[in-house]
Amino acid sequence: MQSFCSQLKREGKKTGFVPTMGYLHEGHLSLVREAKKVSDTIIVSIFVNPTQFAPSEDLAKYPRDIEKDKVLLISENVDVLFLPEAEEIYPQDFQTYVNVQEVTRDFEGEKRPHHFKGVTTIVAILFNIVKPDCAVFGQKDAQQAAVIIQMVIDLKYDIKIIVAPIVREPDGLAMSSRNVYLSEKERKEALVLHSSLNCAESMIRAGERNTGVIVSSMMEIIKSVRSSKPDYIKIVSFEAFTEQDHLQNRMKYYILIACYIGSTRLIDNTVVEVS
Ligand code: AMP
């Protein structure tokens, strides 16, 4: 794979890369389409990365359907599917990890210690194999995108990072491979994530600037269904990804939410620009 990708570079081909964990849906395919806009060759990787899962998390039962994924990638005219084995990526004597210090500390980083270290390590390895000109990540995992952007700056990767918008189901639920874990009832109740984000946006449009007040209203919506257990709701600055008490005009923010629906942990977010 490494020499194949070096050959593409020598031929002057612009490579667009979309790293995924598979069980593909329209969200992943939207990243492929973004990559295509700026690339000659599209490479998608599917690798359920063990180092980003805690022992208590869902590595073993993470959904997989490689045959269906291949059909979807062929239908999108993806040029190369990179499907490495865990033993190739992490041989027995593997001992080097990449760790981004600050932007990994809170939110997902606090709730899932070691998660981002696993993410940055695998993305760094994949970047060194694929050597892409651009790589596309989803806003769905907003903090992950911020972490990757920081890693690319700090480690001087010559790779353009594109962050593509969240793709949602028609009723508003953000697409996720993990949505298959939801029962029929939970699937309906999971809509509270999107409703609470919509509520926050309306409050901000109506002039609310106190993030505590906004988060309380979001919590009420989340707690209105029985299966929900909020993990966190935070409003953070768009650039630095730091928590804010008060919103300022002409600034951009992420509203982040992580919430269990039954035993499934879902995340969602939206970007608001305060006028
Ligand atoms: P995953 O396979 O869950 O690791 O996701 C691979 C990439 O797809 C990540 O960059 C995600 O942020 C992105 N992604 C996942 N779900 C969505 C979605 N609903 N819309 C846009 N991008 C997504």
Written account of the structure:
By secondary structure, this protein is of the alpha/beta class. The chain is 37% helix and 20% strand. The protein is built from ten helices and eight strands. The strands form two sheets. Strands 3-2-1-4-5 form a five-stranded parallel β-sheet, with helices on both faces. The protein has a three-stranded antiparallel β-sheet with strand order 6-7-8. Helix 2 (26-37) links the parallel strand 1 and strand 2. Helix 6 (115-130) packs across helix 7 (142-154) and helix 9 (191-205) runs antiparallel to helix 10. 36% of the residues are buried. The structure holds adenosine monophosphate (AMP). Adenosine monophosphate binds next to helix 2 and strand 4. Adenosine monophosphate binds at residues 20-21, 27-28, 30-31, 137-138, 140-141, 164, 166-167, 174-177.
Which helices and strands appear, and what pairs or packs with what?
Layout: H1 2-10, E1 15-20, H2 26-37, E2 41-46, H3 66-75, E3 80-82, H4 86-89, H5 108-111, H6 115-130, E4 134-138, H7 142-154, E5 160-164, H8 184-189, H9 191-205, H10 211-222, E6 228-237, E7 252-261, E8 264-273
Parallel strand pairs: 1-2, 1-4, 2-3, 4-5
Antiparallel strand pairs: 6-7, 7-8
Helix pairs in contact: 6-7, 9-10
This protein binds adenosine monophosphate.
